Amino acid sequence: MVPSPLVLLLALSAAATVLAEPLRFIDCGSIDGSIQEVNVSPCPTQPCLLHKGTSYSINVTFASKIESQGSKARVYGEMLHVDIPFPIPEPDGCKSGIQCPIQKGHSYSYLNKLPVKSEYPSIKLIVKWELVDDQDQMLFCWKIPVQITS
User: Fold this and answer.
1) Which of 9, 123, 130, 136 pairs as cysteine with 74 (C-beta 3.0–4.6 A)?
2) Distance between CA atoms of 12 and 19, rounded to whole angstroms?
3) Where is the MD-2-related lipid-recognition domain (predicted)?
4) What structural domains does the chain harbor?
5) What is the SS3 assignment for 57?
């Protein structure tokens, strides 16, 4: 018996939902926005296991409390309370799913990629992800524990 397209679609949706469960995160200073949800895919459990040579999808839903012409992401690996800059392919929030200019009271889905390079060490750390407005104030800031692995 061949499964119907609806059964296949439901099965795929269930699998995608498992991979993109909302994460428990620490808000580390969102001032000009409020985070509604953070998803890292795939990351079915925490700490997220980040495999070297793999790229992870980041989706943050947030509401803006201000108007801003633009936004810029800054990502860090935090070890022993020291922030080490972590390059991402596209730091411009307006090229990452956000319709600019940002409007006060509107919700946005910020979408980006987190590439984990093969040369990174295998280590446990905290990923800290900030999105700042055009006044360099935090639209959002969140932290999650991760483990980089081979």
Assistant:
1) 130
2) 11
3) 25-146
4) 26-148 (2.60.40.770)
5) strand
CA-to-CA distance for 86 and 129, rounded, in angstroms? Answer: 9
Residues 138, 41: Cα–Cα separation, whole Å: 24
Quote the tokens at residue 143: 């932290």
Residue 127 tokens, joined: 């990923």
Say what the pLDDT of residue 23 is.
Answer: 84
- The amino acid occupying position 36 is Q
Q: What is the pLDDT of residues 63-104, one digit of tens each?
A: 999 999 999 999 999 988 899 998 898 999 999 999 999 999
